Amino acid sequence: MNNSRRRRVSVAAVGLTVAATALAACNGVTKSEEGSGSSELTVGWNQPFYSLNDQTGTGNNVTNANIAYLTNSQFNYFDADNKLQKDTSFGTYEKTSDSPLTVKYTLADTAKWSDGVPVSAADLILGYGANSGNFNTVKADDVKTDENTGATTAPKGEAYFNAAGAGANGFQYISKFPEVSADGKSVTLTYDKPFADWELDFFNVLRTPAHVLAAEALGTTDADAGNAAVIKAFQTKDKAALAKLANFWNSGYDFADTPKDKQLLVGSGPYVVSAAKKGQYVTVKKNPKYEGDHKGKVDQITVKFFTDATQGLAALKNGEMSAYEGQATVDSVKDAQGKGLDMIRRPESTYEHIDLTVNNGGPFDPKSYGGDEQKAKLVRQAFLMAYPRQEIMDKIIKPIVPDSELRQSLVTFAGAPGYDEISKTNGAASYGAGGEEGIAKAKALLKQAGVTKAPVVREMYDKTNPRRAAEYALAAAAETKAGFKMVDTGDGDWSAKLGNKSYDAIFFGWNSTTTSVLGSMANYVGGAGSNFQGYKNPTVDKAYNQLQFTTDQAEQIKLLKTIDTAIYGDAVTLPIFEFPGVVFYDSKTIGGLDPAYLSPNMFYGFWNWTAK
Amino acid sequence: MITFLARRLTTSAIVVLISSFLMYFLVAIAVDPLSVLRSSTMPSAAKQQQIAHLTAQLHLDEPVIVRYFDWLKGAAGCTYGMCDLGTNWRTHEAVTSMLSGAVVTTLQLVLVATVLAVVIGAAIGIVSALRQYSGFDYSITFMSFLMYSLPVFWVAVMMKSFLAIDFNDFIQNGGQFSAVWIIGVALVTGLAVGAACGGGRGRILRIGAITALAVGALMVYANLTEFFVTPSSGGPLDLLRVLVFSVAIAFGITALSTGLRNRKALYSALTVAGIGAALYYPMLYFWNAVPASWPIVLLLGVVAMLVGIGVGFAWGGTERSRSARTAAITAFFVAGMLFLDRLAQTWYDYAHSSWVHGRPIATSGDSTPNLGGSYWMHTTDLLTHILLPSITLVLVSMASYTRYVRASTLEVLNQDYIRTARAKGLTERTVIMRHAFRNALLPLASVVPVDILFVLGGALITETVFGWSGMGNLFVTALHENVLDAAMGYLLIVAVLAPLANIVADLLYAVLDPRIRVDA
Q1: Complex prediction ipTM
Q2: pTM of the predicted structure, to 2 decimals
Q3: Which of B315, B345, B350 sits opposite A30 (nearest CB)?
Q4: How many domains does one find in chain A?
Q5: Least enclosed by CB within 10 Å: which of A199, A449, B81, B111?
């Protein structure tokens, strides 16, 4: 390049710059970006979402239930005070006869799926059919996984609905096919025998639209035809059709990323899922077709997932979300206090309890004393009396939830019908709350029993859980003072060892999801699935059996009282505390939070949430 | 070469087989899919039914060995494209599809972190070696051992607290440095740069003072222009800033690449800087007209380098290839400046959008949910999310690179050929950049591939703490939720990568260092 050319190039470059600068006229070449303009809330939960059908054995998880709760309506729900409320904008139900128990469900005109199709009898039939277990043509152990597809398919052509609630609800006692009204708006269920918790049978059940399932599984794209096809499949027990429906129902709704098939997102609630990203978040936005009473106040709610509370609290503090419910520990509460976050602290529906094994030849088994029932009972009473319940409460629970109280019933909880009445007379009070007084009583009881050598108690618990390790330390100290010789058999693998007789005492949690009167049945009936302590009392068994088929509430409470009193009298188990629950939130950005005792905890009353 | 490869691959395959068996066995013992069912309060009939169902589904009634070979049969399919690593029994998702999503997320993180750690670590290592036994060297040694021994999770939590929460507060309060901050930061950087440049006390003080003044001035400038709120608005002042930085880059690159005495190279680099500044406004119009995307941006980066080469050849001179090289590297960085400036123009809109609420640096997740807007918004979003985890990974992995490079530079500098080079009168720049630099970096070739594996391990914690759903998160979740197949998916990938990384390291070394042969 010679000099003159170089100069020309430079001049051109400078000229271009000047021209462009002049053109730009100071600022504003780049277009600015627009926001979304809608009101939005972001809240956090402690476990990632993975299925929109929380009714299946695999999808049955609180995190999925929360999203399904936001996106579906139902006949009834629990409020923050554990009272069962009815949503008449979705439908109504009434008991039309006691013998045989007959219940008529009628859907409101305002009950619509988010694709505009009205909720109809077919959806109720599907809910009943899938959750009853009555339409499964195979037994559970015949079901094999196809190694190539991995789907949990039943043997070819057989139908198996893998329903979490099968065998627990009252649907199993309905063998007569429900009566569907001509207008397709109501269904009448006739129970073979009265069922105590009949009112909860459709609770949390209506998650999957029948017409969508028909389209996905049977290929019937027309909504009315699809609804009819679903009813027909169940009515005629059409094995081929039921097998297809069951397959899709079991796993078709499992997704963690926004599915390509938008039909899966159809719901009947105030919100519909609009986007999801695996392990990160689910976003629901207002369902424009929703006409019910629970219309939300915000346009969009995003639920983010933080498995670790420290993480969640940092994100909350950083304004990435407005509320978070995660593991409530002393550390997370302190962390939140340090960060200046707001908290709603209250007990939740899982409770810790101490169980004594009575059939393993250990210190609590009458066999050890030559079949002396009375002596074994005195030893059990001594152990339970000395159990430092108040100390555990004060040292471990109150720092998290200051106004926690000892739970005084094994079969029901504060707020559920009859709790006050039952807890006053069931004998729970006679156990005291441990401490010096309890230890003194325990010593006296052991003396009375004539036990001279300190009974050896092997206590099992989840050793990997720091809170439980701390509980054990407190309990072991008190029991040793009372005259027991404690052996630490804590084990991370405790749940696999439940009921294997290798321990004499164990503490762990029981969870209630409803105010069902039968919730505790499996724990205390002789030989039942969750009765790991070998407990058997004919009075209790008989009362539960009666309770199962009692629909009158006063009668139910009377039976529960009998059961509770009998179990307390036998000194085999005691509740220790209710799990502390904490909703961390930022009052500057969210309003209307009113967390419930029962699941969906923080999400209860989401329609009252406001974004500030 | 071929026998070497064949031998290594065979032994690797055996290693993978044995380790996968051991891991399958151990994980199978550790996880218990039935635990949740066992401790649930559902009625006994329903519970028995579900336990039976799950047992049948997962073949829990069969011995672990049988289940392992079942799994191996599917996994062996990966060698001929019929991969079946099983299914997550809870979510019914195929493990292969779980992995494909997670691998991408993790790679993003690990690649960014590794590249940054190697570049910064190597640079610090070399400088530290050149100033051996100086205060700077001792400080770097101290710092790198400190970083080396820091637990990742602790660093991560500190990052969140200071770089996210406090920094966002800082931005929300208008992004103004206080006088204390300005003086403090200016003094510390001045001291560090002065010490790094070395020389006598007078020289250190002089350079330190100049740097401190420059840094102080920059911070005052940031205050005045509210840099952290609106880093760029596309006005003439921003153009001027791009020009100044481009010229500085041109000088810097030339100084390292050919030395400032090579005037043709310097002019080439300066020309490129000028062209970059001249294209400032045309490019803004260009981005208004053309929706940006990664392919376009990368293509433009390549075009910029080609233009650089052209400019270098046009200036010519005795060694036109050197001018071309200098200009091309300068062009790359100048194009990067333009890119960053355009990105900075989106910063205000991003930070104040309805999705971000004025607090741009995120403590968790790999993206803002439902973020709308253009490529620029999404790229800003990626940066604000990847910032903390990558800094964390860089901090803890950079230290080892610094040590490696420092040691190897010292070794190289003591070699005879370096003495010869100095003796024949080459400038210090030529001796170090041309003769010492490349050889000093050689050991990295064998360290980096293996080290990526360790970063992958570190990413496990980083991902968990920062809520990225990558490989590490997948593994941890799988163990928590008793999903054997998903845990094995992660372990299989690591088991395959480990021997593979070693082979790559060996081959790379052989290619770079002609003294090494891999026949054997």
Answers
A1: 0.86
A2: 0.87
A3: B345
A4: 3
A5: B81
